[in-house]
Amino acid sequence: MLVNMNKVLFPAKQNHYAVGLFNAVNLELARGIIRAAEASRSPVIMGTAEVLLPFGPLEEVSYFLLPMAKKANVPVVIHLDHGLNYDTCVKALELGFTSIMYDCSTDSYEENVRKVKEMAEIAHSYGATIEGELGHVGDNEGSAEGSSYVNDPSKYFTDPKMAKDYVEKTGVDALAIAVGNAHGAYKLPPRLDFERIRTIAQTVKVPLVLHGGSGLTDTDFKRAIQEGISKVNIFTDINVAAAKAEMSHYSGKKQGITDLIPAAVDAVEQECLKKMRLFGCEGRGSL
After folding, report:
1. 58-71 vs 27-40: helix axis angle to the nearest 10?
2. pTM of the entire predicted model
3. Tens of pLDDT, residues 241-281
4. 8-state DSSP, 85
5. Could you give the CA distance from residue 97 to residue 79 in angstroms, rounded to a whole number?
6. Cβ distance 81 to 48 under 8 Å?
7. Taking the CB of residue 251, how many other CB atoms lie within 10 A of it?
8. b/e 122-157 (16+ beta carbons within 10 angstroms → b)
9. Measured between alpha carbons, how far is 48 from 215 in angstroms, rounded to an integer?
10. How is domain 2-279 classified at the architecture level of CATH?
11. Is 46 helix (H, G, I), strand (E, B) or coil?
12. Residues forming the active site
């Protein structure tokens, strides 16, 4: 069943579990995600991100994401993650995505508020939900930003008082926070600020989102969810699992892509199942 984020995240917030967002740039990833959600009776958020559009254009991924969500026997949110441009966010809404994230976290606070408030009004007019980001979730990769983030992540952390003001002024339905998490594969073990998570969760009324989930330990996840995280974003783990499965099944003996697809789908399903059980959302997706 196709739903927006409020349908799955507010029950998660109230009952102290989390729902996973798994990005799907192709049909194999999407099939694995949906199979895991249905097998575990878990609500799920599935989608793509603006930085992933070169690998699966927005309109093209909508051709399979939306019908699969409508057909599923568990609640499925179709979400644009890290929308960086106004036009991309609006296009996702026009295509039927039920949720968007408008990432203005690198703008000034005032500009972040102004732009996200405007987009929230648009998203709500479509019956969709919107996620904003305050603070900045950095990049573990070898960019200048990545180096800066790894060297001193605390300067990007979300301020709890500012979070309350931001949520009230923008009207967002969920808030992504920076608490020591980062995108991509972690080069060093991350140290999440669990006390900050707890404080923000007690300060704002909307569900909190943890980006950069791939690579965190099971203990990190459980503690973050216990302290107030309701949505966890995962891509690297399922992306790598699919690639490893295809490589391990390729012998080079006149094999084609059709010989590798089942392994990729199975690997994604198993990785998603592990995360869904860890997040505590297994069995929470009954319609």
Report:
1. 20
2. 0.91
3. 999 999 999 988 888 999 999 999 999 999 999 999 999 99
4. S
5. 6
6. yes
7. 8
8. bbeebebbbbbbbbbbbbbeeeebbeebbeebeebb
9. 19
10. Alpha-Beta Barrel (3.20)
11. strand
12. 81
